[in-house]
Amino acid sequence: MTNQRERQLHRARLVASVAATVISLACGTNYVYSAWAPQFAERLKLSSTETNVIGLSANLGMYSLGVPVGMLVDHKGPRSAVILGSVLLAVGYFPFHIAYDRAAAPVPLLCFFSYLTGLGGCLAFAAAVKTSALNWPHHRGTATAFPLAAFGLSAFFFSTFGTIFFPGNTSAFLALLSFGTCGLTFLGFFFLRVWPHSSYHSVPASDGLSGSQHLRRTSSEEVKPNFSGHGRRTALTEPDIRGWALLCEVDFWQLFIIMGILTGIGLMTINNIGNDVKALWRHWDESVDEAYLITKQQMHVSILSVCSFAGRLLSGVGSDFIVKVLHGSRVWCLVASSVVFFVAQILALHVINPHLLGLVSGLSGIAYGFLFGVFPSIVAETFGIHGLSQNWGLMTLSPVVSGNVFNIFYGKIYDKHSILGPDGERVCHDGLECYRAAYLMTLGACSVGLLLTLWVIRHQRVKWAKEEKSKAEQHD
């Protein structure tokens, strides 16, 4: 009977993981922005800076309310966050469809609706990741890798769907984003549940997770510290650090700064790869038409998305391998992300042939995927699983500053090199010089990020060595 019950729970957890992955597929549509933003800007006569501000508003929605969103998921359960996110995604995207058809809309209003799309994605995605982490507590890296990877694949999914069914039709594509994101999250809502695990025990529902099982950790006596190899931990009593206590942790601030730097670098390319495409192609071949540029923009969005998907999946599964087999730190995945970002910035500063721009978008996607594929697992491992949603929400405040700085700087540089076209649209014919200065800044930031990740690994080794020594003294 027990084995049958375990098999049923195992199947139920698999179904919940599939639901979390489907939901996440609808939550990463911020990254498809470059596929439609240039055409939207031309139709509404927006500058590059205004276009970047609208895109940044979606990023703000995704990151700025991470803490209250995390608290909602932690205390009310994941399902309420999913249904609210579903509504906000539909309400956020549909006004862009209307604005494009009417060729007019005030920028502040567009920023507001863009913010709603990011917030909707944040709500549903936080629920998906938390559910996956709770359902598979002994395989968090792998379990969270799938919704994280689907989040990265979202842009490819919608971009490809739009290319096949609505080629060159930006209005229809915006309608697709509205109905598609709402539909996927609403469908996943019915199957997203947290199920009890053998190392967890359910508690009365009156304590309150609506729509899911409450879980509690085993006591510290049930999980004994164990160390092996050169000061690296294989297992420790799980911490539970959250709220104000998190702000007193050196580990938090180290990870917070790394997250801000590397995410800001990635977001600049993700939000502006469409502008990179236009700048290089118009300088390379002045005869290219708008339809051709749209195709190339969607291609690079797809490259970014697929590579981000691959990076998220590899870093999630790979980080488990590093910890369980090599007894190392998951932060090595952040080192890999920093190195790949560094190479991408170097290429972005030198690529003048638009046929080679795929190297920039591809490497940027891989690096961004490596970053986000492992970061939630690092947060859970460092500060505890039960505060994951709110801790992750606090961590994602860091890109709010860096994303604004890098993207607005890019917009200012691009506008500086642009001229007004005959129909009032802004056009840059300077090729690489349209945005080169922006990548010089991100190259410097990437160098700082790489040094910080190496410092964190050293800090962890020292900390774990002290804990091992303390444990040995207690046994003596």
UniProtKB/TrEMBL annotation:
InterPro entries from the UniProt entry: MFS, MFS_trans_sf
Keyword terms: Membrane, Transmembrane, Transmembrane helix
Ranges annotated as spanning the membrane: 12-33, 80-100, 112-133, 145-166, 172-192, 252-274, 331-352, 358-380, 392-410, 437-457
Annotated stretches, region: Disordered: 204-231
UniProt subcellular location: Membrane
Pfam families xrefs: MFS_1
One GO MF term: transmembrane transporter activity
Membrane topology: Multi-pass membrane protein
Gene3D superfamilies named among the record's database cross-references: MFS general substrate transporter like domains
GO annotations of cellular component type: fungal-type vacuole membrane
Name of the protein in question: Putative membrane protein
Organism listed in the record: Colletotrichum higginsianum
